[in-house]
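ok posting inputs for the guanosine-5'-monophosphate job
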Amino acid sequence: MDKTLFEKIIDREIPAEIVFEDDYVIAFNDIDPKAPIHILIVPKKVIRSINDIGENDKDLIGKMFLVARNLAKEKGIDKSGFRTIFNTNDDGGQTVYHLHLHLIGGRQMNWPPG
Ligand code: 5GP
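and the output
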């Protein structure tokens, strides 16, 4: 199977501004940021989307949110606020089919989202 774009980042085949990494998760700045802070939090295990999450992935998904919380604090947006988003399939606006949590902040967000 071809590697996903994010596997290539994990394997250092394409560059990214990595802000966190451990054995299970990597986080890096989005190449096309939608706000002053826009980080993608990605499991190293390839899961296509939320539709493909299994019972065994519960700890991993929880860990992704802990990483988001820690990065929000580190970037100084924990108090002002931020948004965490999983886009799923076409209507959800997903373009990369390797699960990722967007952490977006540093400006006022609009609701409803576009
Ligand atoms: P999605 O649309 O699937 O929810 O989010 C994919 C995200 O990946 C987009 O925000 C897009 O800007 C980002 N992205 C796409 N290609 C690259 C890349 O090569 N490097 C980085 N750092 N981000 C990327």
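notes: The pocket of guanosine-5'-monophosphate is lined by residues 5, 14, 16, 28, 30-32, 40, 87, 93-96 (CB under 6 Å). The CA atoms of residues 43 and 60 lie 7 Å apart.
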